[in-house]
Every structure is written in C-alpha cells, then in structure tokens.
Amino acid sequence: MAFPPGFLDELRARVGLADLVGRRVRLVRKGREYGGLCPFHNEKTPSFYVVEDKGFFHCFGCGAHGDAIGYVMRAENLDFIEAVERLAGEAGLQVPQQTPLERERAQRQKTLLEALAAAAEFYEKQLWLPAGARAREYLVRRDLDEETIRRFRLGWAPDDRQALRRALSGEFPEALLHDAGLVRVPDDSGTPYDYFRGRVIFPIGDRAGRVIAFGGRTIGDDQPKYLNSPDTPVFEKGRVLYGWSLARANLGRDGDAGGHGIIVAEGYMDVIALHRAGFGGAVAPLGTALTEAQLHELWRLMPEPVLCFDGDSAGQRAALRALNRALPLLQPGRSLRFATLPPSEDPDSVIRTGGPSAFAEILAAARPLSEVLWQAELSARPIDTPERRADFERRLMAQAALIADRTVQNEYRRFLRDRLFALSRPRTARPSTAARSGRFAPPAAAIAPGPPPPLPRHPRRMQHEILLCLLIEHPFLIEEKREEAIEFDFPEPDLARLKTAILQIEDLPAGLDAGAVRQHLGESGFTLTVDAIFSSSRMHAAGLLGGPDPDQVRRGWSHIVGMMRRDENRAELASAAEDLARNSSPEALAKLHALSTQERPEDLPDEGGAPGAPVDFGRLTG
Fold first, then answer.
1. 556 closest CA partner among 600, 496, 499, 605
2. What is the pTM of this model?
3. Which residues contact 82 (CB under 8 A, 6 or more apart)?
4. Over 90: is that where the pLDDT of 451 sits?
5. Distance from first CA to last CA of the chain, Å, rounded?
6. Ordered alpha helix ranges (H), 281-437
7. CA distances, 430 to each of 168, 450, 588, 596, 597 (Å)
8. How many other CB atoms sit within 10 Å of the CB of residue 256?
9. What is the pLDDT of residue 263?
10. How many angstroms from the chain centroid is the CA of residue 29?
11. For residue 504, how far is the Cα from the chain centroid?
C-alpha cells in the first residue's frame, strides 16, 4: 500500500520521536541527542541514541536504525501499515484510503514536484543568459557572489508572459502547470500566462530540499515588491520556512549551525546574507507572521530559536505577534529568544556595514521571551497610580494564564511576580536616618510619580558568576553540587540560561576536564557568555583558574553558597521589616522574628570567610 509522500512527512513531523521512545526507554539528553539502553537487545552500557531533529534512532550495539514508524514496527511487532495506523491515530491524522482516486492523486503530486523542478531549472538558466543581466547586476549590488547565487539556485523570470509556459508545455499539461502555481488563467478564460514575470526568483524547498514553490522579487518599481507562489497541493505558505533544509543540514554538520543556532529573519535576502556570513541556521517565514505550524518546525530544529526581525516598527510588531502566537505553545525547555536590531536596519544591512561580528553581537544580546513579554507590558501604558499598577499586574497574569503547560505557566507567574516585587522596592525603600529625624524633607520631585527606573545590575551577579566559573572549571562539582545549584534562581537571563546548560550535562565520563565542558557549552551557543564571566581580572586574582585541590574547591564553593544564602535571608529580612512598617499585624511581626533568628545560622560561614578557605571570596563579592 503506497501513501502520498506528504502524508508520511506530516506523520513524522507530528510525532516526537524522543517522546515516543521515552515511553519505554529512560532517555538522557546528551547535547543535541538522547541516549539510553537499547530496547532491542540486552546491554548494560547505553549505546542507543535518538536524534530528534533528524527524526531517527540508532543503536551502536545491535545496529537497529530507523524513524518513528520503524521504531513502532520493532517495539510493538507491527507491520508497516499497522505502525502507520497506530501513529496516525495518536497524531490525529486520518490514514488516506488507497482507492484508485487516491493513487492517482499521489501520482499527480509527484508530477507537480517534477514540474516545479523543471521550472526551477528554467529560471536558473534564464539568470545566466543575456536577458538576465539586469537581475545579475541587482544580485551583485546586494553583495552576492556567483557561488552563493548558484548554491541557493536563484533565477530570473523573463518579462515575456509566455516564456515558462512555452518551455514546459511540451512536457507538462496546461492544467498541471496551473495546479503547480506556475501559470495563471485569466478570469475571462483567455490565454494562460506565467505567474512570475520580470522578477528575481528564489526557489522554496520542503524539508527534503525539493522545490515546492517560488518567491519572486521585482527589481523595478512594480508592486508588490515580493510575490510568492499561491497555495497548491504541495505548498502551504503558513507551514513552510525558507532555508529550512539548509539550516537542518548545517545543524547536522556541526551541531549548532556555526555556534549561532537557528535564526529567524524576515526575508529571502536576509537568510542568504546570513548563510553567506557564517550563520548557517538562518530561516524565514514567507511574508506572513509566524504560524503555529512554523513554530513547531523551528522547535524541531532547536529548543530556543532566535527571532531577529527588522528594527523598524513593522519588524517589532512582527516580533510581538510571534510572542503572542508562541505563548500558549511554550513547554519546558522550548521557547524563543528575541534579538533587537538597530532602527532602520535588517540583518543584511548590519552584515554589509559591520561584518559578521556586528551581527554576532546582536545575537549575543538576544533576550528570552519572558523578558520581552515583561518589557512589552511595562511600556504599554503608565503605571504611576495604584490602579494602573494593579492593571499592570492583571495584564501580566492574564498573559501567563495563556500558557497551556502548567509547569511553564507557574514558572512565568513566579518570574513576573519577582519582577513586580523588584519594581516596587525603590518606591518602598526605608528613609534615611536624617529623613526619619525630620531634619530635612525630600524635594517634591523626588517623590513625584513617574516611570519606573530601569532594573539595575543584580547586586549578587559576581557571586553567581563565580559559582558558574567553579562548575565549569571543576566539572566534578556538577554532579556533587547539582541540588545546591538548582536551589538558586538567577535573575540574570544570560546566567540563568548558562546554569541550565551546565546542569544538563549528564552522565559525565570520568576525568572530564574543564576544556571539554567549555567546548560543549561553546557548541551550545554560550561562547560569549562563558568568555565574559571568565574575563574578569578579579576572577584571575582570586585564583579560580589555578586548579586547587578538590577539598579547597569544595570549601570555596561552600563559602560562596553560604554568602548567597545569607544575602538572600537578609533581603527577605529587609522586606519583612518594610512589611511590618506598613502593616503592624501579628503575622508580619512573627515573620520578621522568624527570619531574624535565621539570619546567621551556625552552618554558614562568617563575614571573614570559612575557616581555612583558600580564596578571599569576600573581597570579590563585597
């Protein structure tokens, strides 16, 4: 029984292979892969791997290999048809009935792909003929060389209304060319004419790289500037990303597309410029806001792709639309980050004026979705009265409620409430001794309502950086101190992401050194963050990189952890004192008393440092 090609592709796309295998096998994430004990032969050392983004499993012990369908066939002893039916039922897909009509439709779909492939070849040839000179000049002005033009199979659609139709009509029926979106039929049923005319052509591929549609850009003043193929039996604009197959191939070659991951730009030229500059994970939607289907396509490639839309107001609106579309779909470990371009700039212009390093800096400053959500609501309207602040909190909690996954929703509620608390602290700070004594009153301007100040650098950031440096430089701590590290919430987004990446390094082989940990983090996109926290001269002065013996390292770790716990306790104590000043209730008094007795527990090091501590961490962290 033969299935239409698109059906099996859709089935594999909807089935998460790691989730499917994880029902029977305990899988442990290892970088971009998952490992575990093979379910098809007895083994004590894991040799079974699931490569989620490529959709296959492989066992190095027994040689078992296949996709989701093959896994179900082996695991449940089913034949191919039964396995397809089982997975289709779980994925909510109806299995096509192979009637003569269905077989004819499947064959027709294949023929559509053949017609589109022939059209791509036609457009490519036209670009290099004398008639394509104007298009070549345009591409050269956009800094594209011949190798890049040929790699992306760019072409030229002549101004002639019948050029493509004449070239293909001898091989493909007129109706087929129409169904493939290559020709148009006038409303008055006159002579069909080519869909693309006088435009630079960008072939659009499916996951396998097969041409399924085209984008065309005018090089004159014609409107619209960009034109995409109409939807066809093999092309649905809202389910396709330009450059997807190339991005997947680059991820497969080096694990992280050059260390920069998946980048979502706005247009064809941005994607091509990014690939040419070494950002091999660049993709783009096809002139529309990101759809749910496209978000799932992105997450098939990487857990946290970076959206990098144009710096103008339209680009920022597109980013917010993407945020709102993604919010209900967030899952543990699956989100988006947002890179902000300078006004009036796009990725192509940034690279042409500042080179790849300028764009790399923009990527390094990408903010997580949670930060963008907070800032968007914060800047939406003033919060200078109690009522407006209450409305601000209501809006934030309403946004968090949109997240379907309860674990992620709860984490967002906690993050937003922490931000609300931090935002309110400058307004509730205790007055100085002079102010309390009445010797002077603050000027009216100092207490007048106004926009909240920007959040300052976290006062304990240096402590957090030292903790991460210790984990990286002494990998044995990752296993020994995992629970303690998990206990601390880092409010700095860059450090929080780095901590998560470090703690996800599981099943550490014996003797793993700091260089291997750094290499793994670099391959996961954390090179700039790691370099930044290790570059401080204070780190070197403290001797963190000198490799002391394990007992000294453990004492240093305990000292930093103790200081962090004490500082957190003091922050809670100050907050409780402020609460008591505002509300003299028995509950507030009891809370203050309880915290007061916990401020300096005996098991925490004193201000001067833990006895025998080899490093003066106190002078580093203040």
1. 605
2. 0.57
3. 73
4. no
5. 72
6. 292-301, 313-326, 347-364, 369-378, 386-401, 406-424, 433-437
7. 80, 19, 17, 18, 22
8. 20
9. 95
10. 17
11. 17
Q: Which range has the worst mean pLDDT, 297-301, 406-410, 411-415, 594-598? A: 594-598
Average confidence (pLDDT) over 599-606:
41
Q: Map residue 215 onto helix, strand or coil.
A: strand
- HSE of 558, CA atoms in CB hemisphere, 13 A: 17
How long is the chain?
622
Instruction: Identify whether the C-beta of residue 348 lies closer than 8 Å to the C-beta of residue 142.
Output: yes
The pLDDT of residue 43:
84
Query: Which residues, other chains included, contact 64 with Cβ-Cβ below 8 Å and sequence gap of 6+?
Result: 38, 40, 41, 48, 57, 58, 74
Query: In degrees, to the nearest 5, what angle opens at C-alpha 104 toward C-alphas 101 and 108?
Result: 135
**For residue 81, how many C-alpha atoms fall within 13 Å in the half-sphere facing its CB?**
5
Please state whether beta strands 193-194 and 183-184 pair in parallel, antiparallel, or not at all (unpaired). antiparallel
User: Quick one: fold of 244-373?
Assistant: Dna Topoisomerase Vi A Subunit; Chain: A, domain 2 (3.40.1360)
Distance CA 138, CA 127 (A): 11
And the tokens for 458? 């976290």
**pLDDT value at 618 more than 60:** no
* Token reading at 417: 């409430």
Task: Please determine, for residue 236, whether its predicted confidence score (pLDDT) is greater than 60.
Answer: yes
Q: Is 209 left (phi over 0), alpha (psi -120 to 50) or beta?
A: left
The CATH T-level fold of domain 5-91 is DNA Primase; Chain A (3.90.580)
Alpha helices in 49-143 (DSSP H): 68-76, 80-91, 100-127, 133-141
Measured CA angle at 279 (ends 291, 502), to 5 deg: 85
Q: Which of 272, 293, 307, 135 is nearest to 206 (CA)?
A: 293
Residue spans of alpha helices (H) in 142-203: 146-151, 163-169, 174-179
In the predicted model, is pLDDT for residue 511 greater than 60?
Answer: no
Using DSSP, state whether 284 is helix, strand or coil: strand
Q: Could you state, in order of their start, the residue ranges of all structural domains in the chain?
A: 5-91, 100-235, 244-373, 461-621
Count how many Cα atoms sit within 13 Å of the Cα of residue 246 in the half-sphere of its side chain: 25
Q: Amino acid identity, residue 248?
A: R
pLDDT in tens, 54-89: 888 998 888 888 899 999 888 887 778 888 888 888
Candidate ranges 128-142, 536-550, 569-583; pick with highest mean pLDDT: 128-142
Record the tokens describing residue 507, joined without a space.
């099943």
CATH architecture label of 100-235: Alpha-Beta Complex (3.90)
Q: Please state the separation of Cα 240 from the chain's center in Å.
A: 17
The angle at the Cα of 618, spanning 613 to 622, to the nearest 5 degrees, equals: 170
> What distance in Å separates the CA atoms of residue 200 and residue 211, rounded to the nearest whole number?
16
Neighbours of 543 (CB within 10 A): 14
pLDDT in tens, 283-333: 999 877 899 999 998 998 888 999 998 777 787 888 899 999 999 999 998
Query: For the ranges 5-9, 128-132, 215-219, 277-281, which has the lowest average pLDDT?
Result: 5-9
Task: Indicate whether 254 pLDDT > 60.
Answer: no
Residue 586: which H helix or E strand, with range? helix 586-596
What is the predicted pLDDT for the residue at 547?
55
